[in-house]
Design a protein that fits this description.
The complex is a heterodimer of chains A (about 140) and B (about 150).
Chain A: H1 2-30, H2 36-58, H3 64-75, H4 77-90, H5 95-141
Helix pairs in contact in A: 1-2, 2-3, 2-4, 4-5
Chain B: H1 25-36, E1 41-45, E2 48-52, E3 59-63, E4 66-70, E5 75-78, H2 82-88, E6 94-98, E7 101-104, E8 108-113, E9 119-123, E10 128-131, H3 136-142
Antiparallel strand pairs in B: 1-2, 1-5, 3-4, 3-7, 4-5, 6-7, 8-9, 9-10
């Protein structure tokens, strides 16, 4: 729970920064003020899904590929929630939601690639150290 | 490290003398590993208690508040707590790898990572143990890395 709350706090902070800039941009272009409460509540709900997604992605139990796929699927309801808040201004064209889904998929894939590469590097490093230690032990035995 | 074995005919007990310039972490680990040869744990299997040498054990795992010792083929139930074993096996090749497992680093054959960054250790008996991200650094240290 502590782990989940930490992810939640970080995700909420980042999301609110993005929403602040988004609201400012909408206001400057259309002079429409989006209610603060609505933005914050949207932030709260969206963060639940984002942190759940991160939680599943980082889960150490179960199949890692299944966890990664679940992590992505959990992110998708966020688009519908976002549409409810910024719908009239941000989603003027129906295609926007699909474009946003593609964007989310790209960002998620990039995150998966980065984490996977980092882990591969770590794996290679650990295997190298293990071989080195075994070699040292073999030499000492001789 | 140089290893020298001397055969002395009239010696009553085997003696190990460690000669070093300073007692550093490596020397401490070496001494603890040597002491481990004297120590025995006890494990229960089919209602019978057996002496269990730590070198036989691949890993200790806590399941439902009970700690089990896994050897090449058998699984023994022990009366120890995981934190007690952690203290007892300090400075040896045994290391905590996740919340519930203490693993003998000497029994690892290779490491494997998953798509989500999860690390697994493959043991000599073919078993796979999940290594928590928190403990990867400690494993590196025990393998001689930084």
């Amino acid at each position: 729970m502590k782990k989940y709350l930490f992810i939640y706090a970080v995700a909420f902070t980042l999301l609110m920064i993005v929403f602040t800039f988004l609201s400012i941009a909408i206001f400057r272009r259309t002079e429409i003020v989006i209610p603060f409460t609505r933005v914050v509540v949207t932030g709260f709900i969206m963060t639940v899904f984002i942190s759940l997604s991160v939680f599943f992605f980082r889960l150490e139990k179960g199949n890692s590929i299944v966890n990664t796929v679940i992590g992505f699927i959990i992110l998708l309801p966020d688009l519908i929630i976002m549409r409810r808040t910024f719908g009239d201004w941000l989603f003027r064209f129906s295609s926007t939601i699909y474009l946003l889904a593609v964007l989310v998929a790209i960002i998620y894939s990039a995150a998966v690639i980065v984490v996977s590469r980092k882990a591969k590097k770590e794996e290679a490093n650990l295997n190298r150290l293990l071989k080195q230690k075994q070699k040292e032990e073999d030499e000492a035995e001789k | 490290m140089k290893i020298k074995v001397e055969e002395i005919m009239n010696l009553e007990e085997t003696e190990v003398i460690v000669r070093c310039s300073a007692v550093d972490e490596e020397v401490k680990r070496l001494v603890s590993t040597l002491r481990l040869f004297e120590e025995h744990l006890f494990g229960k299997l089919n209602d019978r208690t057996y002496p269990l040498h730590p070198k036989q054990v691949f890993y200790f795992e806590s399941v439902d508040n009970k700690v089990f010792a896994y050897t090449q083929k058998e699984t023994y139930e022990t009366s120890y707590k995981l934190y007690e074993l952690e203290v007892f096996l300090k400075n040896t090749s045994f290391i905590r790898v996740n919340k519930t497992t203490i693993l003998d680093a000497g029994k690892i054959t290779s490491f494997r990572s998953a798509i989500n960054g999860r690390m697994e250790a493959i043991l000599k008996n073919g078993e796979k143990i999940i290594i928590s991200r928190t403990y990867v650094g400690a494993i590196k240290m025990i393998l001689g890395g930084r």
